[in-house]
Amino acid sequence: MSGTVKVDIRQLPHGKGLALPAYQSADAAGLDLLAAVPEDAPLILAPGKHAMVPTGLAIALPSGFEAQVRPRSGLAAKHGVTVLNSPGTVDADYRGEISVILINHGAAPFTIRRGERIAQMVIAPVVQAQLVAVTDLSATDRGSGGFGSTGR
Question: 76-86, pLDDT tens digit by residue?
Fold first, then answer.
């Protein structure tokens, strides 16, 4: 299933001049998010530290959708920098700035400059569950076997 959904986007004052999120290929699932840090004050992320990185963007998702903020594989593979709460969720009723919590798992400090691609945002449909309280659950072959119970 593929298609499009209209998402209103607002560029906040500190995001002015930055490109809006964009897909980097025809079949890309994620839109790249850019760092909206000041030009003259890049953010230096020390090894083992995390920081909230502003994007300078706010969105209005339609009801029934979410935006997932996910790591960029290149940052993770080359520098050990990833999204701490991956995937971060932006709910349809949130109208504040999208920020990205980055963590540096690498051995060297990582400098985040204005306009750098720091994460990707995937727009996805949401299904809300209707929870039903019961006294017993249906049986399965696995049963209550937890972590590692089905193999290595």
Answer: 999 999 999 99
pTM of the model: 0.90
Question: Position 76: which residue type?
Answer: A
CA-to-CA dists, residue 9 to 20, 128, 145, 149, angstroms: 9, 24, 45, 45
Q: Which top CATH class is 8-125?
A: mainly beta
pLDDT tens track for 103-119 = 999 999 999 999 999 99
Domain boundaries, the chain: 8-125
Cα–Cα distance, 152 to 132 (Å, whole number): 33
**How far, in Å, CA of 146 to CA of 94, rounded?**
35
Residue located via tokens 């890049």: 42
Spatial CA neighbour of 90 closest among 117, 118, 113, 59 = 59
